Here is the input.
Amino acid sequence: MLPNGFNVFPEDLENALRVAGIRDSVAIETKPGRIEAVVLPPGTHAVPGDPRAAPALESAEPEDVRRQIDAAVKAANRSLGPNQRIAGWRVWPEADFPRTHTFKVKRDRVRAWAAINEPLPVVDDA
Here is the structure.
């Protein structure tokens, strides 16, 4: 729940990012009212048979990767409500998130990592 009383469900944001081309992500609130996304690095491959898999971003150039992720986050933001918008994003430093034995993301570990890493802001051009 955001300070303004709105409920924001991480799954809604993560699904919007998946539709926009990000294979997997974790939406977190880093500060009161600030929603950020932690995304898997582009070019990582999904586990065979994983129904959550979406096409991975292909470019290996860091600036191209940044532009592709930023474009995907902006596209996701356009499909989300004003109270659900993603304010920043970061790339997870490994090929996959830490997971439980049932393949759920260990959100506490992702949140702890995000607390010490600086996000890249999402800036709308329009």
Q: What stands out?
A: Strands lie at 25-31, 34-39, 88-91, 120-121. The longest strand covers residues 25-31. The CA atoms of residues 88 and 122 lie 5 Å apart.
